[in-house]
Write the structure tokens for this entry.
Amino acid sequence: MSAKSKKRSVKKIDSRIDRPFAPLVLKRAREIAATYTVLLQPEPDSGYFGRGLEFPYAMGDGATPDECVENTREAFVAAVATMIEAGEEPPVAAADEQRTEQVNIRVSQREKLLLERAARNKGFRGIGDFVRSTSLANAD
């Protein structure tokens, strides 16, 4: 085999960051991303900010809640597709994960009020979801 033939037979891997994902990877990533929870937060004078419960660092924004959710889900798709390409396992949707363990903490009345306010401002249903998500996001 000539050097020229060898060169043609070697498959080049496209490592550009702006390249499209393979269709099957993208399809699977969209299926997984559709199961993730989007947390919305209104932003004064600029619409909405969204992030993922399962992906706290995958974010999107938009002028309307619907636009924000759509943009945030696209961020999930890109993150999941990247993980799939790298052979990594994307996180399980929070709604699908069985939570069987319990952790109790004692807080002062003032701390509880601060946690409730922070949870509400970040779009969480309650303190438990807020504390779990925030703690796990910072556990790395």
About this structure: The longest strand covers residues 38-43. Strands lie at 38-43, 47-52, 59-62. The chain has two domains: 20-97, 98-140. DSSP finds five helices and three strands in the chain.
